[in-house]
Design brief:
- There is one protein chain.
- With 459 residues, the chain is an all-alpha fold.
- Helix content is 74%, strand content 0%.
- It is built from 20 helices and no strands.
- The longest helix is centred in the middle third of the chain and has 37 residues.
- One of its GO terms (cellular component) is plasma membrane.
- It catalyses: phosphate(in) + H(+)(in) = phosphate(out) + H(+)(out).
Length: 459
Amino acid sequence: MLALIEPGSTTAIVFLSICLVLVLVFEFSNGFHDTANAVATVIYTHSLKAQVAVVWSGVWNFLGVMLGGIAVAYALVELIPPDALSPPDGGIAAGMLAAIFISALGWNVATWLFGIPNSSSHALIGALVGIGVEDSLRNGRPLGQGVDWHQVWSVLLSLLVSPILGFGLAMAAFWLLKRTVHDQHLYEPPKEEKPPIWWMRGILILTCTGVSFAHGTNDGQKSIGLIMLTIIGLFPASYALNTAMTGDELHRIAGDMPTAADLIGRYGDDRRQLGVTAAQAIGAGFGRASAGTALPEPERPALRNDMNLVLAELKTAGEAKGIAAPDKARAHEIHETLMGTAQYVPWWVRVLSAVCLGAGTMIGYKRIVTTLGERLGKQHLAPAQGAAAEIVAAGLIGGAGFSGFPVSTTHVVTGGIAGTMVGSGAGIQPATLKRIAAAWVLTLPATVAISAGIFYLLS
């Protein structure tokens, strides 16, 4: 039904505005759902009062979004098929956006209501894959070509490996702490509202700060990518392409397009001819840009649509079986150069994402904190366990945010706390572990199905 909406009409603007609200609400829910992992240790060990901890964490989440990169944002955007991003009939991608936001947000809220520390990243990736699955089925394409499984597996692998690393490294860190520091009170659950010794309290506050900042650099990028998709639909002439690109830079890209067309023609998939035509259109459009000036506004939306297709086909070509090493390197080089015209974020988008994530951090944290502090291990969380888990989490999440790997704060912190529980000999509560494992297993198929179903109905 949304395919009938005229692009640029009042109805289109209203619907896309609703999509923008939905993505901001999703980022808000990300704050109170995922960031509870950052404040759980300082609150539960009485290192900081709850109100102080969530405000402090919210501030550092804000700074993480503002100072982080954008590699994660666009790694997720590349999971969406180009014709869903830019419908070939000239329509708007409102159905795609609504399906993503509703499915990911709904799953986030549902797991939060049950106090299950589920991953917002996991839910979002499932929603994105659902778009690719439905788009393939609707257009009669094999799932192997309609969904970028290489990118999906790459993202899922980082989600799978990160909690395992969190578990193992946190257990090792706890073991090392226990071998070097012999204050028994640090290894016992708090019996009263009294903070731990000053230096351990300082470590816990510092690690809470680090995890909050790292969460902002990683999870904040995911909403940045989604906000960019929405505002490109709302204001394509203004935001379809990076206006900082000058005519000289665009001319250099135009010079690469004949090579891109050749590579796509030889190694592309069932849409190679569309990719060749799109590369030729980009070459002509960018070649017309005046030296030292940005591309004219009326040309940007159509060229952005062509770019989405060329980027997808270049990626397919670079991963094709039998491609020669020089051709593979050249396809990757042109892909990365062309991404420079699409991979950008206006400063106000960062602020919008940062405000929503920071505000969400300050609300609704109690359910997840209780689960991590009391219901994960067979004993309540001790200060040394919280410190070991958070040190590891800050390093893993921060490194992933700047390297472009979308990891889950929830999975890393939960894995880390579980590792310290095993390292202490306390063990893990089977019932809680089963609930978390069930949510982890069900999140992907559930959000894929919900997203695909909503996209089918709306498109």
